[in-house]
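Example S7 (structure tokens).
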């Protein structure tokens, strides 16, 4: 995180709390190379943390209160840890969700005061909410002097997201924000929660292509997909889709409604693409990586039906560029961002071409930018006068 941003947030902290903050916590957003909508059926995912994050500058408090100012929402919220009314405002809901999940798991919490500020586009599929949850969780770990390992921190954030916020997500976003490694993707097995790090090959750049479209009902559409997966899992008589193969699915095709057949087909084929992609990554085979990414997009578009006209357009425009290995929608879908894999050194020309072609055809300006890999949530003390 650059010093200018730290200084800006620090000045805001001093203005609100009339003192210097003690520490800073930084939790990254993420891209997902491949393995979309597979985490909540115990599948494989391959996220990379990025150099966009949520930062909290804070000092511990001893009076059982938490007091936070959000720069992005220009809103201040203060509450006792032992008692609060549920709030609908998204960022406060996440703060309350983490307090609730930690307390419910029996952790003795102490308060803090802080300023939170992020630079991850919100609702774009880059996990701004998971980064917020992990940053808040880590701040409580430090202020309360408790010890929680990255997997358990991610599980606490997941509990907050599912049982407090009400969104039936998988664990990918929380775990990559909690324990990412620079220059590596995380191959995560969502059944065992084991993960290994796969080096990112040289010569490839990751470009975010934000369509700048957002869909209001993303949350309910996401929960609908979750329900459909539960239903087809039940029909196939397995514990999770991870246990089913394409031939198991085909054998049941006549008794499974077509829509559920397509949902399961996506998940089963996507899990296999993740493993093929990792193999290609280890062999520095950028062409195969690109081909798998394109197949992933087609499957999300046609079988999982979470794409949109804007996403399909920007993915097609990206693939028109010869320096693009492949592109696909990313995150929950329905709007937001796509990811393109582009030959290193060709990024700026690619961004210009896709930007102007998208603007011409869609009539709105997209937002394209390069992302670099980053480390998981981390902290450092702030020196008195830097
Ligand atoms: C959102 C969820 C993740 C995952 C993706 C789709 O980002 O938070 O758990 O399901 O959508 O792959």
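Recovered sequence:
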């Amino acid at each position: 995180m650059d010093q200018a941003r730290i200084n800006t947030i620090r000045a805001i902290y001093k203005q609100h709390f009339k003192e210097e903050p003690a520490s800073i916590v930084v939790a990254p957003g993420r891209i997902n190379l491949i393995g979309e909508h597979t985490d909540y059926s115990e599948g494989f995912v391959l996220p990379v943390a990025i150099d966009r994050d949520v930062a909290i500058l804070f000092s511990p408090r001893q009076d059982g209160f938490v007091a936070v100012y959000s720069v992005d929402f220009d809103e201040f919220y203060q509450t006792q840890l032992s008692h609060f009314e549920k709030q609908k405002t998204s960022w406060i809901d996440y703060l309350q969700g983490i307090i609730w999940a930690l307390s419910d798991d029996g952790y003795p919490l102490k308060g803090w005061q802080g300023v939170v500020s992020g630079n991850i586009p919100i609702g774009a599929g880059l996990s701004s909410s998971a980064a917020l949850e992990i940053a808040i969780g880590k701040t409580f770990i430090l202020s309360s002097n408790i010890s929680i390992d990255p997997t358990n921190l991610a599980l606490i954030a997941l509990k907050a997201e599912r049982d407090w916020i009400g969104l039936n997500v998988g664990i990918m976003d929380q775990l990559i924000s909690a324990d990412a490694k620079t220059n590596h993707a995380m191959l995560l097995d969502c059944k065992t929660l084991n993960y290994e790090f796969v080096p990112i090959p040289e010569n490839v750049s990751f470009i975010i292509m934000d369509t700048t479209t957002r869909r209001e009902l993303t949350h309910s559409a996401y929960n609908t997909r979750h329900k459909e997966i539960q239903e087809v899992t039940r029909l196939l008589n397995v514990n999770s889709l991870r246990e089913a193969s394409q031939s198991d699915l085909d054998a049941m095709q006549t008794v499974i409604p077509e829509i559920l057949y397509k949902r399961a087909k996506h998940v089963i084929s996507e899990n296999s693409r993740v493993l093929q992609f990792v193999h290609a990554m280890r062999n520095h085979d950028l062409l195969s990586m690109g081909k798998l990414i394109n197949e992933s997009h087609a499957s999300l578009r046609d079988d999982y039906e979470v794409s949109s006209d804007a996403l399909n357009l920007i993915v097609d425009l990206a693939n028109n560029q010869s320096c693009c290995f492949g592109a696909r929608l990313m995150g929950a879908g329905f709007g937001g961002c796509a990811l393109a894999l582009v030959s290193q050194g060709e990024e700026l020309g690619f961004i210009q071409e896709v930007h102007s072609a998208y603007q011409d055809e869609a009539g709105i300006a997209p937002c394209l930018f390069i992302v670099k890999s980053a480390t998981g949530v981390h902290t450092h003390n702030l020196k008195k006068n830097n």
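Notes on this example. The longest strand covers residues 47-60.
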